[in-house]
Amino acid sequence: GESVGLHLPTLSVQEGDNSIINCAYSNSASDYFIWYKQESGKGPQFIIDIRSNMDKRQGQRVTVLLNKTVKHLSLQIAATQPGDSAVYFCAEPRVGSGSARQLTFGSGTQLTVLP
Amino acid sequence: SQTIHQWPATLVQPVGSPLSLECTVEGTSNPNLYWYRQAAGRGLQLLFYSVGIGQISSEVPQNLSASRPQDRQFILSSKKLLLSDSGFYLCACTDRVGEQFFGPGTRLTVL
After folding, report:
1. Taking residues A21-29, what's their average pLDDT?
2. Alpha helix ranges (H) inside chain A
3. Is the pLDDT of residue A96 over 90?
4. pLDDT at residue A29 greater than cutoff 90
């Protein structure tokens, strides 16, 4: 079946370096993706989203890149800080019955920022 | 902006006991509401969603049920808990734009 959010499970970076977290998806019809950050013991927090009519979107210290040709997206975090340590998920919404938007999550990438 | 409340924050229950987790939402009306479960080190699995009062859709067959007695209240229940019901339970809602927000979660341990 279709899947999204095929992540590498862990990533360690030095404080101040840039982080790149990758995500692959299989459904070529996917048109919207969301990145979430989940700190230990907390619910996921929205970071940034991107639609398929874009190949890049920037936020505060974060950039998401979408490559529809190879069905890959990445989250780049500039000047990684200790507070960035968390699990990062990419998710794809799909519309269920009514107007319910359901998210399909992968297993996530644990980002560890080293001092 | 919306705020999602979940309680309790943590819960330890024996196998075979009943369960009731509550989620309430503030700052929005007619939200779509969701229950997810997250096993340790894993992604989120959608359990139930609701587009309105009394309307519940189940994504996976399981030992749990959900109810929506009020517009901004979503309840997850079980009559008899199993060991496999342990996990981190997250309530979420979707705003008018379609962005999904999550509550703080309930950590359930079944012993």
Report:
1. 87
2. none
3. no
4. no
CA dihedral B4, B100, A107, B56 (to 10 degrees): 80
- Interface contacts A/B by beta carbons within 8 Å: 67
User: Does residue A40 lie within any of the structural domains?
Assistant: yes
Question: Looking at the complex, does the CB of residue A6 fall below 8 Å from at least one CB of chain B?
Answer: no
Instruction: Say if A50 falls within a structural domain.
Output: yes
pLDDT mean over A30-52: 91
Bridge partners of B12? B109
Assign residue A34 the CATH number of its domain.
2.60.40.10
Point out the residue among B32, B98, B102 whose CB comes nearest to the CB of A44: B102
Domains of chain B, start order: 3-86 (2.60.40.10)
